[in-house]
Amino acid sequence: GGGGGGGGIHRSNMITTISEYDFRCIECNEKAAELHRDYSNGILKITICESCQKPVDKYIEYDPVIILIDAILCKTQAFRHILFNTRLNIHWKLCVFSLLCEAYLRWSMLHGSEQSSDPADIIRYTKEWEFYGMFGLAALELSAFCGGVLCFLWVVVCCLQGETMELCLLLRALLLSCYGKVLLIPAVIWEHDYSPLCLGLIKLFVLTSNSQAIRVILNSRRRLSLMAVCVGLLSETCVAQACKKLSWSIQDMLTF
Asked: Where, by residue number, does the polypeptide cross the bilayer (predicted)?
């Protein structure tokens, strides 16, 4: 294996096969019943795809770091492995963690230039409530983005093309593909060194990952996934602009 070091598969790095779970070949996207074959002598062999005659999922013997690097490079095979062939249920935790980072970054940008020497509790409580407000705003914007993407795809795929679509699987893919927001952590640590360009590049990377996740789930052309991401971004921007005056009003109320 290119990243796993050898032909055998170690059980510690292996994804458990579940009969009810639909696997996919990471090369041709055909469905597969299993990722590996377990022989009586304890040897595990990767299943070969009947359609393309390639290993169904070579990543089951790869180191997680290699998989992460390929995912960062937005490789289709890595996305198929993560979204179809693993039971990675950290999307909600990842979502909350990303929102916390984004909320703290916004809060620090709001108060980074303030120099207050008053240690009164009311000052700390005010800033704490402002952080909660930033978290709520970030969550609302993410909801608007996901809602815009899902509504657009439902109209195009289900209504216009007459095909079926798994909304839960798409939502999971969207949340997992927002992993790029953890790059906000350096901006939080070195809060005086971030720039609009840096934050813009992080946003572009996240949107690119979102587009690739949609493309993998629907097995569609890049144009459809890009259009869906653009609609989601437009929805997010509209909600952000609509909430900006409201958030300012709430902040003004909390500071008095």
From this structure: 129-157, 169-188
**pTM recorded for the entire structure:** 0.79
Domain spans in the chain, listed from the N-terminal domain onward: 11-84, 91-254
> Which amino acid, 197?
L
CB atoms under 10 Å from CB of 184, counted, come to: 23
Q: Which amino acid is at 32?
A: A
Tell me the two tokens of residue 120.
């009164």
pLDDT tens sequence across 235-253 = 999 999 988 777 666 666 6
For the record, the structure tokens of 106 come out as: 């916004």
| DSSP 3-state of 109 | helix
For residues 140 and 146, what is the distance between their CA atoms, to the nearest angstrom? 10
CB 1 within 8 A of CB 61: yes
Q: Using a CB cutoff of 8 Å and minimum separation of 24, what contacts does 96-100 make?
A: 97/182, 98/178, 98/179, 98/181, 98/182, 98/184, 99/135, 99/138, 99/139, 99/142, 100/135
pLDDT in tens, 169-189: 999 999 999 998 888 877 667
